[in-house]
């Protein structure tokens, strides 16, 4: 299996809320990036095919890529879906269930600041269209700072809510902020997920861990040159990456802040692979 760039997007809009703007791209830029993926000769495959290959199953096409979208912004329904459907491209949308709402009502509560998010009817429609709906917890916390009971609530209750809405199992998970730990990953496996996406800002490979798949975060400041290098599997490390002392120290600091009642907050951001 050749290296596989797994692209991570958040919002795709011309007018994102300030808090997500550094992690958003415009529809024009997104369209150009889809063109660059095609020009590089990459075949966009569903995430589940990558997971199958990582677990020793059916091989991927020689030059493959995966598209993923975190949080569940409504622009995926209105803007991204037509662009992907026109090109016949699959994608996985990781939904924060506490930010979802029934049409005509407000969200049920999450740590994400206000934004236009998908509603349950739209999520069901996307599922019918063939897009994979994955889980991104209930409230979008830093899972590696929580107690075991809190982690279980976040990874299990959100899974149950999605499965109730979709009437079929949900197997894919993404760690909020990219943060995980050995105990968090164990809880995710025990909850019944077969894959989990991290960040890492690295390219996935045949030896990548299916429970912390490396992804490349596409930001508002990602240059065309950098994106083109990613499509060529260049310019960034190849997973798996070993956990660094810096990563461990950062986790300890965030845990200490959480225990003190002063958690390190902020929107989804780049992180090292945990």
UniProtKB/TrEMBL annotation:
SUPFAM superfamilies attached here? Glycoside hydrolase/deacetylase (SSF88713)
Cellular location(s): Secreted
Q: Which UniProt keywords apply?
A: Signal
- Asked if the keyword Aminoacyl-tRNA synthetase belongs to this entry, the reply reads no
The segment(s) forming the NodB homology domain are 63-274
Give the matching Gene3D superfamilies. Answer: Glycoside hydrolase/deacetylase
* A Pfam family hit: Polysacc_deac_1
Please give the superkingdom of this protein's source. Bacteria
What InterPro entries does the annotation carry? Glyco_hydro/deAcase_b/a-brl (IPR011330), NODB_dom (IPR002509), Polysacch_Deacetylase (IPR051398)
Q: What PANTHER family would the database entry show? A: POLY-BETA-1,6-N-ACETYL-D-GLUCOSAMINE N-DEACETYLASE, PTHR34216
Q: Could you tell me what this protein is called? A: Polysaccharide deacetylase family protein
Tell me which species this is from: Streptantibioticus parmotrematis
